[in-house]
Amino acid sequence: MSKFTKVLKDSYFDSVTLMSLSAKIKKETKASEVTVLMATDMNKDLISKVGLGTDDVLNAGQNDCVIGVACDGDAEEIVNRIVKELEDGNNQKKEKKEVVYHTQAQFYKEEDPNIVVISAPGKYAAREAKIALENGKHVMLFSDNVTEEEELSLKQLACEKELLLMGPDCGTTILNGVGLCFANNVTRGNIGIVGASGTGLQEVTVLIDKQGGGISQALGVGGRDLHSEIGGLMTMQCMKALDQDEQTSTIVVVSKPPASDVEEKVVQLARTLSKPVVLIFIDGQPREDENGVYYCSKLSEGACKAVEVTNHSLKTSFDLSSDVLDVCAREQSKLTPNQKYLRALYCGGTLCSEALSITRGVLKKVKSNLAKKEEEKLSDPLVSEYNTIIDMGDDFFTNGKPHPMIEPSIRLDRIVQEAKDPTTAVILLDFELGYGSHDDPVGITIDAIQEARQIAENEGRYLVFVAYICGTEKEKQSYTTAKKLLEENSVIVTNTNEQAATLAVNVCKEVQ
Amino acid sequence: MKINELFGKDLYVVNIGSPTFLKDLDSQNVKYENLEWAPPAHGDVELIKVLDKLERHKEEIDKANDEVVAKVKAAQGKLVDCKKAIDAIPGMKPNMILHSGPVQDWEHMADPQKGAVLGAIVFEGWASTVEEAEEYLKTHEIIFSPNHHLNSVGPMAGVVSPSMPVHVLYDEVNDTYAYCPLNEGLGGVLRFGKNTPDVIERLLWMKNDFMPVLAEALKICGGIDVRNIIMQALNMGDECHNRNKAATSLFFREITIPIMKTSFPEEQKEKALAFITNNEHYFLNLSMPYCKLAQLAGTGVKNASIVTIMSRNGYEFGIKISCLPDEWFVAPALMVKGLYFPGYSEEDAAPDLGDSCITETNGIGGFAMAASPAIVKFVGGTVADAFNYSQSMQEITWSNNPNFTLPALDFKPSALGIDIRKVIESGVLPIINSGIAHKKAGIGQIGAGLVTPPFECFRKAIIAFADQFED
Asked: A302, A346, A347: which is closest to A359 by C-alpha?
């Protein structure tokens, strides 16, 4: 055991500085005793008690700092280090102060934000949303598991206060050109959208962008807004706001088919607005267009209609070009007789619904984890049967994990699994680019696609891959690179989700 | 429509929950604040219901709380006398011993508090040794009472026996008094449970020699404004709980001439002055009773959800709220996290002890840590942490106190009036600067650090509080 003491004459240090320094040194060096103290009588007693009361120490005065170390190694070295730290300590950089806020109430005392994005767990989310609304803040409620009763009372409060309550379970909004949560980098323009579905809203903004149109606002209102229980409160609130918005000249509403009473209310409102309204009720009953109100049942159809009524000519056609159809026919010819079925593995929920609806119209024996009809339900979401359309964003898969749009890797094993099934003919995939989404969803999927091809090849089969990339040329992830990478791997990439699904289904239709 | 006002404006986003989407707000150059959000009430669904119920009575509670903080801010505090407890404190009995914290009995008493009680018995002359004192306890009826029940406060063990001298503070606004024993200094002292002959001897000297000098000096000068000294000391690097250097110096400056003017022998006066100047914590035992007076002013306001007492006895932590002045809400005391003197570690520490967190209750001490950045090093933190502690206490208080300002935060007033609703809502607990006592009586202070009350105290308090309101 070596011991060493040193007295720094007339060196005053705050006792707290000394205590924290000795604790730090003791921890770092594991020395059995480290004392750094001003030499008061009481402190000299303490030092003596731990066996470091040398004459120097005992003779030191009140204004002297005494350092003592007892350790297995070199005590003097540690003492010198302490002296150095004491000297350096005086030159330490001042740290930047940073204020931390735990509650909305406290933050609003100091600052005046205008919108609150809430992704807290559902059972607390409604409460936070209420506090936000009561403080006059607009709310984007990303959280799910908010009850319909809570949603109703929040939306009533928001309507009363003329505020936005987007959500719950709302993943997409573009406000003043800013993408919140999942959103695409689309051209700004004069089409204002209200969407009761996440990727449906994304798809419409992207397709409008592709057709040369632009977006003023894209407001996600949550998938239940057009249920009877909510009565379309926020959809109609947003339609009215867009009607008054000088930057908006066309209003689009995107939703799964509303409850019939709600549909009537929305249609009634649309008729009274001063601007043309395109109502896209996905899979809805066809209706005759009337003066200023247009009905569409498909996302791409609605996007095109919106661009047209805003007096833009369409930049491109979303019909499947003959080139693609040729490629498709060629691919199809490579399938073996047993390869019959479509396997669609989706990250985007509404895109998945769209694919399901397209498939259902053409193929028999369609199964999905999204299905409501008994005969369409999958007995085990982990195992595909016949034509299977999977929404990987379903709670069953995401339980405790990030959504596949954020972390598409949860789909990789399933791609390989489908390749092992000798009846699989086509694998249909979607990729979402844009704010909130994974930095390189295609890149992390390529290995699995190649592995799948290899598995099939080893067993004398060929797999058709069809993909849709939801995104524009302006995204933070490069659309061009993603598309190129897929095509290099013989994946057929289409311009719309509808095209991708239609194409995939057509390949299977022939062989079935 | 308000929605249309938002269109075209720069967004300023508050994020609550997952930070996943923040990087894309960054990439779009959107201004945002990410709250350090946690589920309210530590996620306790029943407590959230209680909060929601209280929300429906917000108006009456808010009004009551306004009244509490107004009264607290207005309270004055002057040191007017130094007397024996039995002469000074109404309700003190000849066989009564006061202690810190909530209600306690001998059986469950923490060792340092036991040591102090035995020392007090010897000091009173009821027994001549500590061993005899233990016998005395078995054969005689001693009444134990929390200091707070008699408007007294005492640091650490907080033991006050009938003939111990106490500081007498007077609030002329409310015509109330509060009391506190005198600070014996650092090291082996009664408040840490030491009861050896040297400790008893010093206590006797304090009673026989010091008390009369101070009492006469206070008569000569007409009393000393303690609140005023706190106001100054907060601007001089003290937080008036764990650091009292500036305040003790200011007090010394005011008391010196009056002491010199007293009729006592020079040597006695010199010793009295030396006693004050050699103990940089002298002022703690003035800061505490001032805070007690201020909190007393805010006590007993119907519907008020403000904490008026926080206190611990080395066994349990207890709080009281303004509208339920007779009810303690207790839970097992926590351990202080901090730094230890050479030769000691956390294993040697007693659980959190003493009435001194009346200072935090009144918005100084840990709440004013930004005034005293040196203190934050106790927990190995930074100056920025000190600022954050003071800032974050604003989150759980109903108001702040313009009397107590924090120079480093641009003289922002210190947080005042702990609102149990806000504690439950935010999950943020009051931060307390504290000394650490050795778990064995008589060894003394072995370190200092930071501690909080247990959440459980606030849980119990808010349930009892909410019970007063209709559903």
From this structure: A346
A374 interface with B at CB cutoff 8 Å: no
For residue B106, give its domain range: 73-288
Distance from CA of A388 to the nearest CA of B (A): 31
What residues in B contact A109, CB-CB < 8 Å?
394
Q: Where are the alpha helices (DSSP H) in A6-112?
A: 15-29, 41-49, 55-59, 75-89, 104-110
- State whether residue B407 sits within 8 Å of chain A by CB: no
Low-confidence ranges of chain B (pLDDT < 70): 378-381
Q: Is A123 on the interface with B (CB under 8 A)?
A: yes
Q: Are B216 and B207 in contact (CB under 8 A)?
A: no
A480 pLDDT above the threshold of 60:
yes
Helix count and strand count (H, E) for chain B: 17, 17
Residue A337: inside a domain, yes or no?
A: yes
Residue A96 has a pLDDT of 47
Residues of chain A positioned with their CB less than 8 A from the CB of B40: 124, 127
pLDDT of residue A89: 64
Cβ neighbours of residue B372 closer than 8 Å, sequence gap 6 or more? B234, B237, B238, B239, B242, B243, B386
Tell if the CB–CB gap between A119 and B8 is shorter than 8 Å.
Answer: no
A178 touches chain B (CB under 8 A): yes
Residues A260 and A346 in one domain: no
Position A94 in a domain: no
What is the model's pLDDT at position B257? Answer: 98
Whether B294 maps to a domain, the answer reads no
A residues 213-252 closer than 8 Å to B (CB): 216-217, 237-238, 240-241, 244-245, 247
**Cis before A168 (ω within 30):** yes
Is the separation of the CB atoms in B27 and A477 below 8 Å?
A: no
Name every chain B residue with its beta carbon within 8 A of the beta carbon of A37.
342
Q: Convert the pLDDT of each residue in A484-497 to its tens digit.
A: 999 999 999 999 99
To probe the interface with A, which of B1, B2, B10, B14 has the most A CB atoms within 10 Å? B14
User: In which domain, by residue range, is A59 found?
Assistant: 2-89
Give A40-71 pLDDT, tens digit per residue: 888 888 888 888 989 989 998 877 889 999 99
pLDDT of amino acid B379 = 57
Find the mean pLDDT for residues A215-232.
95
Residues from chain B that touch A99, judged by Cβ atoms under 8 A, are 387-388, 391
Q: Is B411 on the interface with A (CB under 8 A)?
A: no
The proportion of chain A whose per-residue pLDDT surpasses 90, expressed as a percent, equals 67
Q: Considering the entire predicted model, what is its pTM? A: 0.81
Q: What is the pLDDT of residue A129?
A: 97
Size of interface A-B (CB pairs under 8 A): 203
Q: Which CATH number belongs to the domain containing residue A410 in this structure?
A: 3.40.50.261
Half-sphere CA count of B374, side-chain side, radius 13 A: 20
pLDDT band of residue A94 (cuts 50, 70, 90) is very low
Residue of B nearest to A68 (CA): B342
Residues B291, B296: Cα–Cα separation, whole Å:
8
Strand A215-220 to A188-195 pairing:
parallel
Tokens of B268: 């006695």
Whether B320 and B282 map to the same domain: the answer is no
